[in-house]
Design a protein that fits this description.
The protein contains 11 helices and no strands. The chain folds into 2 domains: 144 residues, no CATH class; 40 residues, no CATH class. The protein is an all-alpha fold and 211 residues long. 64% of the residues lie in helices and 0% in strands. Helix 1 crosses helix 8 and helix 4 runs antiparallel to helix 6.
Length: 211
């Protein structure tokens, strides 16, 4: 009887960060947006952060002080301008990042509202510009200036990523990946592979949990 020889299947592991990096590079290329590596890295971190939709919203009240958090974009911007330096930088970064992400991923719904993408771009661009002025680190100041001056270009990049990937605001690839590594769930593995994230074989996952 002839022996059957099966060709071994090699599965490569692509980290969530690597997955998002490929998306960002493809989006920049497709939209013909030229920039430098720190801006690419910033966009990758942005995508990872906002995969958890809870990061798009602040609670109505600050947990420690009990003071009411600003709820509108204008309130956030004005509050940031009057805050102490560290708090100011954090609020401006959050405002810039949030308006950029929402404009890219939810721009279609914004176009049907009174507050449209142009308003988000105006507030977000102003937040990044102010952040660039109060940031001491030269490289990050340059990154924020790029986003301020070319806000709508990067909205287009995120919109492209939104339309040509499996990223959804209500599903976290990171959480799926962690679930697969923790439990070896076949369902989690299948969903990850549908999204383009190749996973380690289960025997290697089990071996990693034992070591």
């Amino acid at each position: 009887m002839r022996e059957k020889h099966s060709t071994p299947t090699v599965e490569l592991f692509v980290s969530p960060e690597g997955y998002f990096q490929e998306l960002v590079q493809k989006g920049l290329s497709q939209r013909k947006v030229q920039t430098f590596p720190m801006v690419e890295a910033y966009l990758v971190n942005l995508l990872q952060h906002y995969l958890d939709a809870r990061n798009l919203h602040d609670p109505a009240y600050a947990s420690e002080s009990g003071a009411r958090n600003p709820q509108t974009l204008a309130e956030m911007y004005l509050t940031a301008q009057n805050a102490e330096s560290f708090v100011k930088a954090e609020m401006l970064r959050k405002l810039g990042d949030r308006t950029l992400y929402i404009s890219g991923f939810f721009g279609d719904s914004l176009s049907r509202k009174i507050i449209d993408v142009d308003y988000y771009a105006e507030i977000g661009g102003a937040a990044y510009a102010s952040l660039a002025h109060c940031t001491r680190e030269d490289t990050m100041a340059r990154v924020y200036t790029v986003f301020s001056d070319r806000f709508l270009e990067f909205v287009d990049v995120l919109t492209y990523i939104s339309h040509h990937s499996f990223i959804k605001s209500d599903e976290s690839i990171l959480r799926l990946y962690e679930r697969y590594m923790r439990t070896g769930s076949e369902l989690a593995r299948e969903k990850l592979e549908e999204m383009g994230v190749l996973t380690l074989p289960q025997d290697q996952v089990k071996l990693g949990k034992q070591s």
